[in-house]
Amino acid sequence: MEDRLREEFSTYYDKQPTQTYFCPGRVNLIGEHIDYNGGLVMPCAVTFGTYLLVAPNDDNVFRFKSLNFEDTAEVALKDTYEKTGTYWYNYPLGVITHFLKDGKTLKGLDILYYGNIPIASGLSSSASIEVATAFALNDLFDGGYTKLELVLLSKWVENVFIGLNSGIMDQFSVAFGEKNKALMLDCNTLEYEAVDSNLGEYVLAIINTNKPRKLAESKYNERVQECHTALAALKQELNIENLCDIDTDTFNKHKHLITDEMVLKRATHVIEENDRVKLAANALNANDLNEFGRLMYASHDSLRDLYEVSGKELDAVVDYSKTNPNVAGARMTGAGFGGCAIALVKSSAFEKFSADVTEYYTNTIGYAPAVYSSLIGDGVGLLQDTVHA
């Protein structure tokens, strides 16, 4: 892969790249729509993601090329930039803007991106681009940021520059991911525990529904607002900063404060899902994958019925999984409204699972999904310094 990308870089820019970086995508194993409510999530880095190849230029410009999109850009170095339309290169441009805003000294670069994360699938292709770019610039120009500061910087890009009110989970997990570990992350304090995730005879199946999904244009921001409404109601009697500051028992004693039935459903999911993450960590620590799978199904049911962010495509994958004895559990992952589901599938049965879920889904929905298997991988890093290779 890296050799082919270096050839592509050389063909396009007529020179060799000096460094190659990689940042993975992520799946969230459990704990959905929790990150912006100050609770616990359990993501892991996957083994596919974004490659970034770079070489300096003397022209004081940033040149952006991606093998995934036709659009290219050449941008003169200046003090600040603004988002332009919906182009993919807004993500690296936002990162550059933050570096400049912080007074960092940058110079011209020729950059090539390639991602093998399915676009708009809910596997955090945008966070992967942001963190890959931030890590590379920090490395190349001695930015002095810590890894956590790069995460926060990238979240600023998503929230302010791009305009999506997402939490910190995506950027955190692709930066701090560890091989064969799930990250139980407290989105309020940013403290985390790397939970041993020995999948044993199982693999992580990722099923992309192939339903087009524009997250920034979806009902995501509407759900964020509904949670703010629930929090404001609970604050009439509770001294809390986030919905996830309370457990299910405390919530049940005070949920009468939420008078809007729809808002109550949203809050119920958030509180119960946060408790499910704690139970899931206990199950993984005990190597009880059957219990972990049961919690995955419970999570999906809540996201379908209470939070209403699933849909017939994601439900079809989970409905089929419940009929397959080789599947321990399944759920939608990511923000929903399309995107991906995940399933714990016995490795010996993965190929048959892939064929059977594809047939069921195609018959039910009318077009085929894409099915992948992934290991749990490491976070962002420098793959190769090609000058010294």
From TrEMBL:
Gene3D superfamilies in the record: 3.30.230.10, GHMP kinase, C-terminal domain
InterPro entries registered for this protein in UniProt: Galactokinase, Galactokinase_bac, Galactokinase_CS, GalKase_N, GHMP_kinase_C_dom, GHMP_kinase_C_sf, GHMP_kinase_N_dom, GHMP_knse_ATP-bd_CS
Record-level Gene Ontology MF annotations: ATP binding; galactokinase activity; magnesium ion binding
Positions of the GHMP kinase N-terminal domain: 90-177
Domain of life: Bacteria
Biological process, per Gene Ontology: galactose metabolic process
Pfam family, one: GHMP_kinases_N
Site features described as Transition state stabilizer, chain residue numbers: R26
Entry annotation: catalytic residues: D170 (proton acceptor)
Annotated Galactokinase N-terminal domain residues: 7-56
Primary subcellular site in the record, as a coarse category: cytoplasm
Function in brief: Catalyzes the transfer of the gamma-phosphate of ATP to D-galactose to form alpha-D-galactose-1-phosphate (Gal-1-P).
Name of the protein in question: Galactokinase
Organism in which the protein naturally occurs: Mucilaginibacter terrenus
Record lineage: Bacteria, Pseudomonadati, Bacteroidota, Sphingobacteriia, Sphingobacteriales
UniProt gene name: galK
